[in-house]
Amino acid sequence: MANENKTPEEEPRFKPLIEAADHLSLGISIVVAVLMGVGIGWLIQRWTGVAWTMFIGVFIGIAAAILNVYKAYSKQYKEYEELAKERSERMKPHFDKDEDDEDYGEKNY
């Protein structure tokens, strides 16, 4: 990663704000996807004159919303895996120390 050696002064100041907006945009994108699907269904219904074609657009909108949730989940899971890997690499030296190990063998007093 390119940001590993940066000091706190070099980190982007707006990074937390951008990440928060990204998380908020998921809810908005779900609503927008469903509304766009309803709009597409309404247009198909107007062009064909068949009432049930509205549901085609609704299903397209719902599918797009589910796809948005899946993409967001995949992105978050990938970030979680990277964080877990990074944490385990930092903790590994603590577990490899032999000087704290005690001998639980037989004691001769």
TrEMBL record:
<feature type="compositionally biased region" description="Acidic residues">
    <location>
        <begin position="98"/>
        <end position="109"/>
    </location>
</feature>
<feature type="transmembrane region" description="Helical">
    <location>
        <begin position="50"/>
        <end position="70"/>
    </location>
</feature>
<dbReference type="InterPro" id="IPR032820">
    <property type="entry name" value="ATPase_put"/>
</dbReference>
<feature type="compositionally biased region" description="Basic and acidic residues">
    <location>
        <begin position="86"/>
        <end position="97"/>
    </location>
</feature>
<dbReference type="Pfam" id="PF09527">
    <property type="entry name" value="ATPase_gene1"/>
</dbReference>
<keyword id="KW-1133">Transmembrane helix</keyword>
<keyword id="KW-0812">Transmembrane</keyword>
<protein>
    <submittedName>
        <fullName>AtpZ/AtpI family protein</fullName>
    </submittedName>
</protein>
<feature type="region of interest" description="Disordered">
    <location>
        <begin position="86"/>
        <end position="109"/>
    </location>
</feature>
<keyword id="KW-0472">Membrane</keyword>
<feature type="transmembrane region" description="Helical">
    <location>
        <begin position="23"/>
        <end position="44"/>
    </location>
</feature>
